[in-house]
Write a structure and sequence with these properties.
141 residues; Cytochrome Bc1 Complex, Chain D, domain 2; 0% strand; extended; binds heme C
Length: 141
């Protein structure tokens, strides 16, 4: 049976999932689609967060990665801030920087900066932050 749908209504019905239910809903019993890769930051490490034994890379990925990995909003904002100053797009990733010091990183994380909200000791403990700051600073104090 052919049901006539007035053309101006079609986008609305598609958006509501009424015109093409098969697009809006996966078939019954099927597995959900895989997560997009940009959401695949490291899982929260187990263990004592006050004396962290996790690697700095894991801690950075887990606590900072949802903004500072590729496609994160921190990466995007830093790219927009830095490129007009002549910095390369790759330098928007904190892991590519060689000008960050431990003290600067700790101050930014605890106080926040611009569009970055401050991270409390619940978000990232002092022990975890010490590792992340050393990792990002790459030896610079
Ligand atoms: C909610 C998102 C978010 C999280 C989580 C986050 N950041 Fe940021 N970060 C930003 C944004 C956005 C900026 C750019 C701020 C601006 O310039 O307005 C930024 C900037 C920075 C800067 C300054 C870089 C510069 O060039 O001066 C440092 C350092 C930094 N973040 C470190 C971290 C670390 C370490 C963590 C994890 C402990 C972290 N951030 C977690 C969003 C985030």
């Amino acid at each position: 049976m052919f049901v006539h749908i007035p053309t101006p209504l079609l986008p609305l019905l598609v958006m509501l999932g009424l015109a093409m239910p098969s697009l809006a809903m996966p078939p019954e019993g099927s597995a959900p689609p895989p997560m997009p890769t940009y959401q695949m930051r490291a899982a929260t490490p187990d263990g004592d967060r006050l004396n962290s034994t996790a690697t700095a890379e894991t801690l950075f990925s887990n606590h900072c990665g949802y903004c500072h990995l590729p496609y994160g909003m921190g990466t995007t904002v830093l790219m927009m801030r830095r490129m007009p100053m002549g910095a390369s797009p790759a330098s928007a990733l904190l892991t590519n920087r060689d000008d960050l010091t431990v003290d600067y990183i700790k101050a930014v994380v605890r106080q926040g900066i611009g569009a970055m909200p401050r991270q409390t000791r619940v978000d990232i403990t002092d022990s975890e932050l010490a590792k992340v700051a050393d990792f990002l600073a790459g030896g610079s104090q």
